[in-house]
UniProtKB/TrEMBL annotation:
Family: Belongs to the glycosyltransferase 104 family.
Keywords, in A-Z order: Glycosyltransferase, Transferase
Source species: Azoarcus indigens
Catalytic activity: dTDP-beta-L-rhamnose + L-arginyl-[protein] = N(omega)-(alpha-L-rhamnosyl)-L-arginyl-[protein] + dTDP + H(+)
Biological function: Protein-arginine rhamnosyltransferase that catalyzes the transfer of a single rhamnose to elongation factor P (EF-P) on 'Lys-32', a modification required for EF-P-dependent rescue of polyproline stalled ribosomes.
Keyword Cell cycle: no
Any one GO molecular-function label of the UniProt entry: protein-arginine rhamnosyltransferase activity
Domain of life: Bacteria
Classification lineage: Bacteria, Pseudomonadati, Pseudomonadota, Betaproteobacteria, Rhodocyclales
Name under which the protein is recorded: Protein-arginine rhamnosyltransferase
Length: 388
């Protein structure tokens, strides 16, 4: 029997930074997307303030216990955990463990909060079957539900704040050229292929850089400061590259950019002809940029990430013609260590115009589905009594 809840007004998200920025990137976006409705109170608990401050510079100037930035109350998740009234919806991100005292406080509420575990994004088939499933706590009379983001109507969808695609379209139509002129190296020819590069350590870059350097078409890499930078420097025979520096080698140039806030990173993705992205959040944002992309997936034990990569390629490439799909697959596999990046590049480069059309269609098709916040609201408003 269905149990209809009123729309929840107070929300809190718990985020533990495991490695890199991705988990916090997703949680911050979710918190901000929820907070766009002024009727909602949104609190984000984060255990790594330094990582948060890189994505959200406003966090750096807050007092010790935290404070509000862009409508979201940012709080330090520390031990011992402070006694606070739990929100109506409590989201634990990526199976992080809620503080035991907070769980007790949740159980003690007359109307227990809705408890959601936000999972990692995957295009794998099993996701739809697990989305929304419940799991009762053995003692506390609470039940959490598993929320799986995804790319199909039977999953939890993708984060897409309102106005995102309209802002992208304005930028790409009217602001891109000026942005590139201000951000990239001076004097890049008009036919430059602009590539953003955000990746983990990338052994495949050396051969690709060599190929680009020898090529006919100018290629310019825009590289935010991060883990791939040592490989970029090595590709130019330099011991290191600093933010603001430009390196050149034949037809290839690279400019190192500062790590910006999330909005600044979106503009980089919107500006480039090809986006090399990684993890989860930049991967999704590159899809909203509606430009060709290649995904450096986060490596898992026993190469399990290749299943995830293939599942996405199957879905994303379902309506691509075989040559373009093959080009995409070969380049993505090589970029993830299964193949030769330089050998895969020419066919991939030739397919870029078709991949650009396809990227636009994919973004438009995904945007017709309800976004992650809409689906979260739906799940939290219309919950099944047996689970809640
Ligand atoms: O940092 P990541 O590698 O994150 C990964 C994944 O989330 C993965 O699923 C997780 O298990 C692992 O971390 C531990 O990549 P991701 O997800 O793209 O996150 C990077 C965030 O940084 C994203 O929110 C975009 C943001 N960003 C900026 O805000 N400014 C920048 O200049 C750049 C380059 C990125």
């Amino acid at each position: 029997m269905a149990d209809f809840h009123a729309l929840p007004r107070s929300w809190e998200i718990f985020c533990q930074v495991v490695d890199n920025f991705g988990d916090i990137g997703v949680c911050l976006r979710l918190a901000r997307a929820l907070a766009t409705d002024p009727a909602r109170e949104v609190r984000l608990w984060v255990d790594d303030w330094q990582a948060l401050s890189r994505l959200c510079p406003g966090a750096a100037g807050l007092p010790a216990e935290g404070g509000k930035v862009e409508g979201v109350e940012l709080r330090r998740w520390r031990s011992p955990f402070p006694a606070v009234e739990p929100a109506e919806v409590v989201i634990e991100a990526f199976a992080c463990e809620l503080p035991p005292s907070h769980l007790q406080a949740m159980a003690a509420r007359p109307q227990p909060p809705q408890w959601i575990n936000l999972e990692y994004l995957s295009a794998e088939d099993w996701v739809a079957g697990c989305h929304g499933l419940g799991s009762p706590h053995p003692r506390l009379g609470l039940a959490k539900r598993f929320f799986f983001p995804g790319f199909t109507a039977d999953t939890g969808g993708l984060l897409r704040e309102s106005g995102l695609l309209a802002a992208r379209d304005v930028f790409q139509a009217a602001e891109r050229a000026a942005w590139l002129a201000a951000t990239g190296p001076a004097g890049q020819p008009d036919d430059t292929l602009w590539i953003s590069l955000f990746a983990y350590e990338q052994p495949g870059l050396a051969a690709l850089a060599e190929h680009w350097a020898q090529g006919d078409r100018p290629v310019c890499l825009l590289v935010p400061e991060g883990r791939v930078l040592a490989d970029v420097a090595a590709a130019f025979g330099r011991p290191r590259l600093e933010v603001g520096e430009t390196a050149r080698r034949g037809a290839l140039s690279a400019r190192v950019l500062p790590f910006t806030d999330q909005a600044g990173y979106d503009r980089l993705l919107w500006a480039c002809d090809l986006n090399l992205v990684r993890g989860e959040d930049s991967f999704v944002r590159a899809q909203w940029a509606a430009r060709p992309l290649a995904w450096h997936i986060y490596a898992q034990e026993e190469e399990a990430h290749f299943h995830k990569l293939q599942a996405f390629l199957d879905l994303y490439g379902a309506d691509l013609q075989t040559p373009a799909l093959q080009a995409l697959t070969d380049f993505w596999l090589a970029w993830n260590g299964r193949g030769d990046t330089a050998a895969a590049w020419p066919i991939f480069a030739a397919a870029l115009p078709e991949l650009a059309r396809h990227a636009r269609q994919w973004s438009a098709r995904q945007a017709r589905l309800p976004d992650l916040v809409e689906r979260l609201l739906e799940l939290c408003t219309h919950s099944v009594k047996a689970n809640g």
